[in-house]
Design a protein that fits this description.
Blueprint (H helix, E strand, L loop, with lengths): L1 H16 L9 E7 L6 E4 L4 E5 L5 E7 L2 E6 L10 H13 L5 E9 L3 E6 L7 E5 L14
Antiparallel strand pairs: 1-2, 1-8, 2-3, 3-4, 4-5, 5-6, 6-7, 7-8
Length: about 140
Amino acid sequence: MATAALIGGTALAAWLLSPQVDPRLVGEWVNVAPAEFAAYRRFNTDGTHSLSPRFPGGGGWAVSGDTLIFTENLPPFSLTGSLRRTWIAIVNRIRMGGPTREQYTILEVTPTMLRIQSQAGLAPVEVYRRKSIADSPPESRPPG
């Protein structure tokens, strides 16, 4: 009984301390700066993320404090498809000690604007506007 309580308590603490999905970011965001980036980001409530059109694919996302964390998902396994791509992703994951992680500092987030900057060097600030307020979760919409 004590062991079950300890395991349950440990799992709860780990969940509470781990990065979580931030409802303010859920939805589709269109890049407005820098202009050469020209993409949009979609943050889903299930913790998945996509970046298009120049960078197809996706992965996971979460927020810890003011840090936005992106992780790479393994591509779906297919006998007839990209076995090589799946193998490379697995090898890279082992080599890097886990899934590829990109971290950004959240500089500002409002119901209509998102400003982030990569923590990986001298990258420019990325500015996004929400594609549609209707696209945002109710708790992040402005009153009225």
